[in-house]
Amino acid sequence: MPDGSAQLIGYGTDGAMYHCVRGRDGACTAWGRLGGYNGAPAFSGPALAIAGLPDGSSQVLAIGLDGMVYHRLRRPDGSWTAFLPPRGVTTATMAASAIGITGMPDGSAQVVAVGLDGRIWHNTRQPNGSWTPFARIPGPNGRDPFPAGQVRITSLRDGTTHVTAVSAG
Question: Is the pTM of this model over 0.85?
């Protein structure tokens, strides 16, 4: 984070998602339980990721127990938006088996997901909160899809990203 702190998320032994902040001095806040989608008391699922942005906000991406991708924003003041699902490729929501998110210098967040088709998909959450549509990332030869089991994304200072995927085969 810009102030030298780190945002941490994880699933507790109860299966619920928790968040804490590690300050630049090394001290950590207490772990706080995050509410779930649509007013649920907790969020549980098989995968989660977090990214910090230049304005001090952080964005959480997670796969719920229903297999759908959800997104939540932590504002610089520490308040949270609700979990909401980004639109899918051809459906109202995006189902995935693996996810990754990274914050960009321009305040956007780049998202990657391994869809239920085993292919890697990408979209962007713009600084104004709007989303671009998911688009498939081509395979190594630029044409064929790349079947993946895991995927990660990282941003570089020049505004580019690097995507790393582990083959499912």
Answer: yes
